[in-house]
Protein: Transporter, auxin efflux carrier family protein
Organism: Lentilactobacillus kisonensis F0435
Amino acid sequence: MHMAVFGSAVSGVLIILIMIALGFILARNDWFDNKMTSMFARLVTQIALPAYMISTIMRKFTAKMLLKTLPDLFFPIVSMFLLYIISIFVVKFARIPKMHSGLFRSMFSNSNTVFVGLPVNMALFGRSSLPFVLVYYMANTTFFWTLGVYLIQKDGKGEGSFNWKTTVKKVFSPPLLGFMVGVVLVLLHVSLPDFIMQDYD
């Protein structure tokens, strides 16, 4: 049983690595230019992923399941603050230059939840892991576009600034909005027509 799970996990990760390698090779051989690469990223994050979020949340979860999951937002928030505190000590012990300390602390505390975390979790744990990844994503996005960006700005300018309009726009990204729409529809017991759900899939 355990070997089967391990084999499935390794297989899922290998598929992701093969896809990454294929993309790298194609880009290296000029199959994609910078404009096309940007287009793919925007297509995934602004169209495909939000639609996938709505579809998966509505198909796989009930209001009871979501209400049980959302309070878990506490755990990623605590873990990120702990990582941030640890990063302060790491900066001192590793003697990270002051001009790079903010960037280091920001990267130490945050992760790439969508492009790396989501496919890896889906490969390892299947669709059942999606709400947990998205709860982490909510905390991670908020943390990065507030404290994380502030720390990075301090590296470049010596002082950080905070723009509420930009921050809100970045925090409420299309994938997160797709997740929130899916959650609201499930909590309100709203069912979308089949032809729309098929398009989302």
Summary: The chain has two domains: 1-32, 46-200. Residues 128 and 165 are 34 Å apart (CA to CA). The chain has a mean pLDDT of 77. Residues 1-32 form one domain.
